[in-house]
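ok, trying the design again with the full structure, not the truncated one.
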């Protein structure tokens, strides 16, 4: 009878191994799980060739062995079914994946306790799942009566992996290459809260290649907060059974720990994992750097640490992996299968924006729920209710990053301001910096505003991306950067800003869909609001004309205040709004036509106005003369809008310091020679494709310090009197491809320190008077292919420190470098594709 059972067990095992190998080759859909199953089967295969181990297996009750044989035969059917699972059926794929994982785990559980502790191949296999090491240490502790050995396994050993890991295999391979090939001793894995940093590093530590390199010298310490060097040292000492040490100071802890690490790392390399390191613990990481051959530190953190040059920034999940993770939480293999349409699942997945924590929590919250619950959940979230309001764990995880800013109150305020901009959009850094300059009394040079942008970026609360290939601090810190933010963090900013009663909030964010205004707007119209920042965004939703007429009639009957002609995407009516203390107003538009609301003329404290259209074509603006009544207005930004001559009243604003026109259809709005804002210090014109020439009136802006005219491809000439701008310090003219020359009067600009003529393809010569610019320090001129020579007077530019150019242009400077002893010629790599896109965009 025993022989029959042995034969049946071996036959079932070999048949299962055979079909697994076959399907691994033929089926791509479950290849990772099939390879894992194949590795497990091959790992336990020696059991059948070593009689003493097989006899241990057969010593089990006959009923148990028979049941396991039956389980393997069903496992064979499960593997054979892999190619039949449709790739588009996400839920069925998840259920099948779970069954393969369970089969693999059952194989391990059945065979693992029979393994000899010194069986190397088996220990390596089980080590992948973090099981055999723990067994060996427990058995050794029992046999040697050494309780410390068991303590080690649990104190600083690598935690076990979750049952299913999705979307991290490629990240693991990239991180492994960095860890094994990079000379840096400290490697930081950085990403926002809940993005899977810790899971990724667990996966890496269980990788066989990593275990081959570092062996058992992989130490895991969760740092979190608060923490100290003494605490970490104590954990490591206890892990190695040294319980009698008590450190009086951090210095003593460091010295003793270095001695211990030298001792333990003498035979093999060592990897120290510091999980969940907060910004205040950066110095601890530095103190744990020891000059020990083969010793490395791997850090996970929500923050970027510039002092450690090697950083891996973990990206969020793609749509396919996001769908798999949510379905794994929502439809466990042993749970109730609800018939939820794939389309609805996909919609909820998109709302989670690839954040693993959100996907897991949302999936779990919908597990076992009715189809109605799924539909109402999606409806609430799609209509503006935040996921954070219904999922406390996601809120707390993300909020902890903001709580850490309590010691930096201005930076925290700056983060909360980010809710003023629409989701999934790139925002010019200068747009945000203009707001902060006025709200927090920062310097107008951009140093402190840039510092706050960088601080938020280092904490993974925003992302900064350069707008050009040769962006550098020479151009004015963050002026040439775009800002993006994960939608969940934007929702967090809005959520945290909305805790007080509406009338007391510092920030109000109004999103208008169709004719649906926020409830607080329609209820509070008679009560003044104390908000300093008001952001109004209009959506894409539109209603039938008949419905709009009915709503209009109803509103007229109840005599609610209103303004006519607004944004056709939501209504022909603006409700009135009494917000006299507003200092910053951002209008985010998505329509062909838009009339500024009449209530803005009552915002007498308004300092910053930003009007940005996200429509396909520039939005036609109306009611522009209203802006002329805002006497305290200092900064205006028009982006992707169509302007008219009615803009002229704006130029009479006595306090106006900066005005920006970005991607605007300007027409004749700048052609009048009478427009002279008396105190304007900065004028920005970017990607205004119908701008052919500038009025001579610009030469009367005697207080102007910064003039930026970029990517205006139809501009072919500058006013001859440009030299009248005696206070001009920065002149940007990059990518004005038809611009043929700089006016001779430029020599009069004695305060000019920065000029950018990059990609001005038509400039063939610089004026001979160029050398009279005695204050010039930075000259950017990459892509000036038409320029054949430099004027002789260039040798007079004794203050010139940096020339930024391409390789071709750099040869023009070879003959004059010896005369300009302060000069550095910085050659940037030419990207012809990027240059071409600049020209045609």
């Amino acid at each position: 009878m025993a022989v029959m059972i042995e034969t049946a067990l071996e036959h079932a095992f070999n048949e299962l191994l055979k079909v697994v190998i076959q399907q691994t080759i033929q089926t791509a859909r479950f290849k990772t799980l099939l390879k894992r199953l194949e590795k497990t089967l091959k790992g336990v295969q020696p059991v059948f060739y070593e009689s003493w181990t097989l006899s241990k297996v057969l010593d089990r009750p006959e009923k148990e062995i028979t049941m396991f044989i039956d389980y393997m035969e069903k496992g064979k059917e499960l593997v054979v079914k892999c190619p039949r699972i449709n790739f588009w059926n996400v839920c069925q794929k998840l259920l099948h994946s779970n069954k393969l994982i369970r089969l693999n785990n059952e194989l391990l559980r059945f065979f693992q306790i029979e393994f000899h502790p010194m069986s190397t191949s088996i220990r390596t296999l089980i080590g992948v799942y973090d099981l055999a090491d723990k067994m060996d240490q427990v058995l050794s502790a029992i046999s040697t009566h050494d309780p410390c050995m068991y303590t080690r396994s649990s104190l600083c050993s690598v935690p076990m992996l979750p049952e299913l890991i999705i979307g991290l295999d490629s990240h693991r391979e990239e991180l492994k290459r960095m860890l094994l090939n990079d000379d840096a001793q400290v490697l930081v894995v950085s990403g926002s809260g809940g993005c899977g940093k810790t899971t990724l590093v667990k996966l890496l530590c269980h990788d066989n290649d990593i275990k081959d390199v570092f062996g058992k010298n992989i130490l895991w310490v969760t740092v979190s907060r608060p923490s100290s060097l003494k605490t970490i040292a104590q954990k490591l000492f206890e892990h190695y059974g040294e319980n009698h040490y008590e450190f009086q100071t951090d210095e003593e802890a460091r010295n003793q720990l270095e001695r211990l690490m030298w001792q333990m790392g003498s035979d093999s390399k060592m990897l120290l994992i510091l999980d969940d390191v907060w910004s205040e613990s950066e110095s601890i990481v530095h103190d744990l750097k020891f000059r020990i051959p083969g010793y490395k530190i791997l850090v996970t953190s929500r923050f970027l640490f510039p002092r450690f040059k090697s950083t891996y920034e973990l990206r969020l999940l793609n749509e396919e992996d996001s769908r798999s993770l949510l379905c794994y939480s929502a439809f466990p293999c042993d749970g109730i299968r609800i018939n939820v349409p794939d389309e609805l699942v996909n919609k909820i997945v998109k709302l989670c924006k690839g954040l693993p924590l959100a996907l897991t929590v949302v999936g779990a919250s919908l597990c076992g729920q009715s189809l109605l619950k799924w539909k109402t959940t999606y409806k609430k979230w799609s209509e503006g209710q935040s996921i954070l309001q219904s999922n406390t764990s996601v809120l707390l995880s993300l909020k902890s990053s903001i709580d850490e800013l309590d010691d930096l109150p201005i930076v925290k305020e700056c983060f909360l301001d980010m809710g003023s901009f629409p989701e999934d959009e790139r925002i010019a850094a200068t747009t945000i910096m203009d707001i902060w300059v006025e709200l927090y009394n920062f310097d107008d040079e951009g140093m402190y505003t840039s510092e706050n942008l960088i601080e938020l970026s280092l904490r993974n609360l925003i992302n900064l991306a350069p707008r050009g290939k040769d962006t550098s601090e020479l151009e004015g810190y963050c002026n040439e950067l775009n800002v993006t933010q994960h939608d969940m963090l934007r929702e967090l900013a809005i959520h945290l800003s909305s805790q007080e009663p509406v009338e007391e909030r510092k920030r109000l964010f109004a999103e208008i869909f169709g004719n649906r205004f926020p409830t607080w707007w329609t209820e509070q119209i008679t009560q003044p609001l104390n908000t300093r920042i008001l952001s109004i965004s209009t959506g894409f939703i539109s209603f039938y004309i008949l419905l709009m007429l009915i709503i209009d009639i109803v509103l007229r009957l109840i005599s609610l205040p209103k303004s006519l002609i607004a944004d056709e995407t939501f209504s022909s009516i603006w409700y009135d709004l009494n917000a006299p203390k507003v200092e910053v107003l951002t209008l985010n538009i998505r329509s062909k036509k838009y009339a500024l609301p009449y209530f803005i003329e009552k915002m007498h404290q308004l300092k910053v106005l930003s009007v940005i259209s996200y429509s396909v074509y520039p939005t036609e603006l109306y009611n522009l003369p209203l802006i002329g009544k805002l006497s305290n207005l200092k900064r205006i930004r028009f982006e992707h809008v169509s302007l008219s001559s009615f803009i002229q009243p704006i130029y009479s604003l006595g306090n106006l310091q900066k005005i920006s026109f970005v991607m605007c259809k300007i027409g004749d709005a700048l052609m009048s020679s009478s427009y002279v804002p008396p105190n304007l210090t900065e004028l920005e014109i970017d990607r205004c494709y119908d701008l052919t020439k500038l009025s001579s009136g610009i030469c009367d802006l005697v207080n102007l310090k910064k003039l930026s005219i970029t990517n205006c491809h139809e501009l072919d000439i500058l006013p001859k009197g440009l030299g009248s701008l005696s206070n001009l310090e920065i002149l940007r003219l990059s990518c004005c491809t038809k611009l043929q020359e700089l006016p001779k009067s430029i020599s009069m600009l004695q305060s000019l320190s920065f000029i950018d003529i990059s990609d001005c393809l038509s400039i063939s010569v610089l004026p001979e008077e160029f050398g009279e610019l005695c204050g010039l320090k930075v000259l950017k001129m990459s892509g000036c292919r038409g320029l054949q020579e430099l004027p002789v007077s260039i040798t007079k530019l004794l203050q010139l420190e940096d020339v930024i150019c391409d390789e071709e242009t750099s040869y023009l400077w070879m003959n004059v470098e010896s005369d300009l002893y302060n000069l550095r010629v910085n050659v940037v790599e030419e990207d012809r594709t990027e240059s071409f896109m600049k020209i045609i965009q």
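Keeping the full-length input from now on. Residues 476 and 827 are 19 Å apart (CA to CA).
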